[in-house]
Structures are given as C-alpha cells and as structure tokens.
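mind reviewing this fold:
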Amino acid sequence: MPIFPFWLVNLAAGAVGLRLSVYVLATFVGMIPTSLVYASLGNGLGDLLAQGHHPDLAILYQPSVLLPIIGLAMLVLLPVLYKRWRNGRSKQPA
C-alpha cells in the first residue's frame, strides 16, 4: 500500500526535476508487479464468487486466491531481502 498519494509523488517527481526515463523505470519496477498481483487476486476472488462459493476462510486455500497472496508476500519481502544482500556485500573484504 502506498504511503503517499500517487498525485503527490507525481508532483514531487516533477518538482525535483526527475528524468522521465528514471520515472518510467521506477514506475515499472514499483507499481506494475503490485498491480498484477492485485488484479490476479481480484480475478481469483471474482471467479470463486461467480461459482457460488461463499466468502469464508476456506477460499484462501484455492490456488486462484492463494497464489496471488503468496506473490504479494514475496513482493513485500523483496526490499528486506535486497537490504540484507546489499549489507552483506558491503561487509565483505575487498
């Protein structure tokens, strides 16, 4: 979930003179994977509700719902793993 509203981030990017290529790359890396996971989760829940399943905890075990949730968890862990990797590299002797 974003901490700042998207319109505020767009204004700040323009105010500090961020290059368009950097902005587009950051948008691609930061927003598109999350959007795909959210859309996949919504699609899976929609399919289950269309089949007549009632919303309860049992639908969490359906692959169409469980896999996007796992994907979201992996996206959340990416910054933590990157920070550990970066810190590990900086502590290695040159």
Q: What stands out?
A: The first helix runs from residue 6 to 15. Residues 62 and 83 are 32 Å apart (CA to CA). Helices lie at 6-15, 20-50, 63-91.
